[in-house]
Write a structure and sequence with these properties.
By secondary structure, this protein is of the alpha/beta class. It has a single domain, classed as Fe-S hydro-lyase, tartrate dehydratase beta-type, catalytic domain (fumarase). About 35% of the residues lie in helices and about 30% in strands. The protein contains 7 helices and 9 strands. It has a 5-stranded mixed β-barrel with strand order 2-3-6-7-9. Strands 4-5 form a two-stranded antiparallel sheet.
Length: about 190
């Protein structure tokens, strides 16, 4: 189990390996399809995300006394962002992506080039994640994109457990699981003949 703080540096992410358990403290921001599409079409983020972690999340928020409070902030499926992630990571020096379900093989080479990692967070943990958000530092594009698709800039404390499921050396847990599943499937089919 490792505890990391943002802003993340190459030395923080380069030595992480598949299966490492991470608890993350510091600044992160949410991004989903709409944000990625806007950036791919030439838009810019309204802040500098260097060293931060992207959280694939569409949080449910509640405004009380002029301050935003998270109600639920579980991960969303990252594979939806596959077609956008490469250009996003080439534009911004983000060292970690947090989400669920993993990302495609083509993202592995980008993670290697950028010394970045993909951290899996268990689906269905929205209340746990919300509890780890200590401050909503800002929200961007709320009116234009709506609550789920806006960028939420959070300060988190020990967000986790996060599992390194894609490392900066080309390792990919999802690929390994798929390969093992296909081996077992072939074995089952062979034994039924």
């Amino acid at each position: 189990m490792l505890r990391l703080n943002t802003p993340l540096k190459e030395k923080d992410t380069r030595n992480l390996k598949l299966g490492d358990i991470i608890y993350l403290t510091g600044e992160i921001f949410t991004a989903r399809d709409s944000v990625y599409q806007l950036v791919q079409e030439g838009g810019d983020l309204p802040f500098d995300p260097t060293g931060m972690a992207i959280y694939h999340c569409g949080p449910l928020m509640w405004k009380k006394g002029g301050k935003w409070k998270p109600v639920a902030a579980g991960p969303t499926t990252s594979g939806r962002m596959d077609s956008y992630e490469k250009s996003f990571l080439e534009k911004y020096d983000v060292k970690a992506i947090i989400g669920k379900g993993g990302m495609g093989k083509e993202i592995s080479s980008v993670l290697q080039d950028r010394a970045a990692v993909y951290l899996s967070y268990t689906g269905g943990c929205g209340a746990l994640a919300a509890d780890k958000i200590k401050e909503v530092k800002d929200v961007y594009w709320l009116e234009e994109m709506g609550m789920a698709n806006a960028i939420w800039h959070f300060e988190v404390e020990e967000l986790g457990p996060l599992v390194v499921s894609m490392d900066s050396k080309g390792g990919n847990i999802q690929t390994k699981i798929q390969e093992k599943a296909m081996e077992k499937f072939s074995e089952i089919c062979k034994n039924q003949r």
